[in-house]
Design brief:
By secondary structure, the protein is of the alpha+beta class. It has helices at residues 3-18, 20-28, 37-44, 48-60, 80-93, 106-110, 121-132, 148-155, 161-164, 187-199, 216-225, 242-247; strands at 35-36, 64-69, 72-77, 112-114, 117-119, 136-138, 144-146, 173-176, 183-186, 203-204, 213-214. Helix 2 (20-28) packs across helix 3 (37-44).
């Protein structure tokens, strides 16, 4: 890219950010959570069609990224460089980014199943910790690879990491959490982690609910093994009774 093309690129991005509705959209995404076009339209105080047009322009300039989860479509900032640029502008403008307040019922928000893997606050915290610890390595293809320490850590839990890599599905990938609007761990590795948590009685689940209850044992083990501090759950489950164990779900890894 020559100097003239660079200048044009800068001016196009600056013009996109400068539009008031787009500024509101981008700033609302700075907390790392993804939002729907309907939510962003409300934030920007514009119609749904106008918000869609703004989002198309922001996506064209690689300022936002589209996430498709089934029939739902969410938008997030394209990467941390966009957030850093916005932060610098907000310092100059002396503005603060808005906060994200999830509206999901507390029990489901804390921990639940998402297809065959774990979702909710607990799953997002575990995902972030695995990234921070260097167990999961991000790639440009929106998939994860395991580092040597990651392989050792998962195998220490009794998980057959090598076999998981041979299954006809993605090995490990980010899955956007619909309550937290941030990624948790999906793919074969995420499914195996949930089965391990159920088998070790770290979490329990009744047949009539997707909600997962973190047991006292699970809180102790996850805090120790992942070196993380877990938030207090409204009702931490006690070690499973015979009836609870009989009703616990153990979905097979696809």
């Amino acid at each position: 890219m020559n100097a003239e093309q660079h200048d044009i690129g800068v001016s196009q991005v600056a013009a996109a950010i400068a539009e008031p509705a787009r500024t509101k959209i981008l700033c609302s995404l700075m907390d790392g959570h993804a939002r729907t076009s309907t939510e962003l339209a409300a934030v920007a105080e514009v119609s749904a069609s106008t918000a869609s047009a703004h989002l198309a322009k922001l996506k064209e300039l690689a300022l936002v990224r589209l996430h498709v989860q089934g029939r739902h479509r969410y938008y997030s900032l394209a990467d941390k460089r966009v957030a850093q640029a916005l932060e610098a502008l907000m310092v100059i403008g002396q503005n603060a980014a808005p906060t994200f307040n999830p509206r999901t019922p507390d029990r489901l928000q804390f921990a639940r199943t998402c297809y065959d893997h774990m979702a909710g606050t607990l799953a997002v915290l575990l995902h972030d910790r695995m990234i921070e610890a260097g167990w999961l390595l991000e790639t440009d293809q929106q998939v994860y690879q395991l580092s040597a320490s990651g392989v050792a850590s998962f195998e220490a839990l009794g998980m057959d990491v090598k076999n998981l890599g041979t299954l006809r599905r993605r090995f490990a990938c980010p899955c956007l959490d619909w309550s937290m609007r941030r990624p948790h761990l999906g793919g074969a590795l995420g499914a195996a982690l949930l089965q391990t948590a159920i088998k070790r009685k770290w979490v329990t689940q009744d047949l009539d609910s997707r909600a997962l209850a973190l047991t006292a044992l699970g809180r102790k083990e996850l805090s120790s093994r992942f070196a993380m501090e877990l938030p207090v759950q409204a009702a931490t489950a006690q070690p499973a009774s015979t009836e609870t164990r009989r009703r616990a779900i153990a979905s097979p890894v696809a």
